[in-house]
Every structure is written in C-alpha cells, then in structure tokens.
Predict the structure.
Amino acid sequence: MARYDNDYGGWPPYVPVAERRALAEQLVAKLRKQGKAIEPVVITKRAIAGTFWGKAWCDNLERYSDFAYRLDRGRSYVRNGAVLDLQITPLEVKGLVLGSETYTVAIKVAAPPEPHWNAICRDCAGGIDSLVELLQGRLSTAAMTRICREGDGLFPKPSEITFSCSCPDYASMCKHVAALLYGVGARLDEKPDLLFRLRAVDEHDLLSHLNTDSLVSTGASADRILESDDMAALFGLEMSGAEVPAETEQPAVPGAVRREAGRSKAKPGGVRKR
C-alpha cells in the first residue's frame, strides 16, 4: 500500500504530478505482477472524455452542484492517473484510487424503474436506426435530448447513487469517489455499452421500434441492420458505395472445378446479407 510521509500538521505533503503518475504506474505494475486483473484509467488527452457517451456522463456529473468542490479534485485525480483500477458491473462500480494511500472505492447505482426505461425507449422510437449508431452516439437530436434529459433520462440522479471509500474523509463524496466517477466517463469512451450494463438495462430495447416485418425473408435481425457508414465506422474503412467489380473468371485447369464468374456485388449504401 502506498503512503506518503505526513509531516505537515496532519496534511499530506505536496507531491508533484509527475511523481504521482510514476508512483501510480509502479503500483499498477506491482498489482499485475501479483496476478490481479486490474484496469487503470489512463487519460492521454486534455479532455477526460471525447465521445458522445463519455461526455454525456461527465456533463451529468456537473449537474451535481452540491459536490462541485469534490468533483474538481476528482478531475485532477483521474487526469493524474490516480485511478489504478475501475470495474463496471451491473449496478456497481468498484475501483482503487491513489491518494495519500491506495483507497478502495465502491459506487452503487440504482436500476431505473421499468416504466422509466420503457418511457425512454418509447420516446426514442424512430430516432435510432442501428445498434452501431446507438453506441457511437450518432443519434437524432430528439433521441440524444431524451436519453440525456435531466431527471428522467438514462443517467443516474444523485439520489440514485450511493458510494463508499476506505479513506478517512468524512465528506459524503470524497475526491476519490469523484475520481472514480469521472473514470467511468473515460471508460465509456472505449466501451459505451458499459453504460447500459451499469444501469442493468438492455440497449436492444431502444431498437424495438424497428420494423422487422420486411426482414423475415432475409432472416436478418434488427440489431444487424447496418448501413455502409456504420460498417466503415466499425472497421475504420472508407466505403464509397460503388459496386465491387465482378470476379474475373479463372482459366480452366485440368482436373479442377471452374469457379463461377460474376459473383455477388455489393449494393450501394448497404451490406449484402448471405
């Protein structure tokens, strides 16, 4: 367990940011060497989060005005690499945060009532066209506004969150808890589906408005309806939508079976289902 010497009248001494980061990296390496599967939060840019879901989570935290001071300290902690581990499971976030010692933090989140979640799904009908679009945050303005709406959106209210920390801080939300909360925003940049896991809801429910009657003949399911730009986003490709040239017929080879020429072509703006 890391601990700084305390010779400043009850307050821990100031430790430069570079030293804190170096210590955090050493602790992470030590824990991994011990065989512990930990997932530190590493911020490589100035902003804690850069994608729709990460930003939306952090923006929701900013609404917690009662914790403004603690949130500010938490932002500094997560940027400095103090969140050594962050694990998201249904209705709970657990982690290790480096302060004057290494502290254990637990955050519990209530599941939204079923009528609440059903209302979100109903109000978002028609504003989400695919699972990829949903997870990438490329939603209609109406759908984004509804999902992020204060009070009855997908993000938890202060009254739906309880937290604990092994530090001696008497505050209801200490800076270590705040750091872990911001760490969730950073993690959602990488894995946005973790938000739905945390709230214990199924993101596929938001796609229930899709008309699957026309898909019966192809056997496709709603969550597999992907436009060409969705595929490009998934695989980092640039897809122009132009037809793929037919495969050139191969010369006949004795004892071999000739391959059929003119194989299937890609449809402009879509993906051919087999």
In short: The first helix runs from residue 17 to 33. The mean pLDDT is 78. The two ends are 56 Å apart (CA to CA). Residues 17-110+159-207 form one domain.
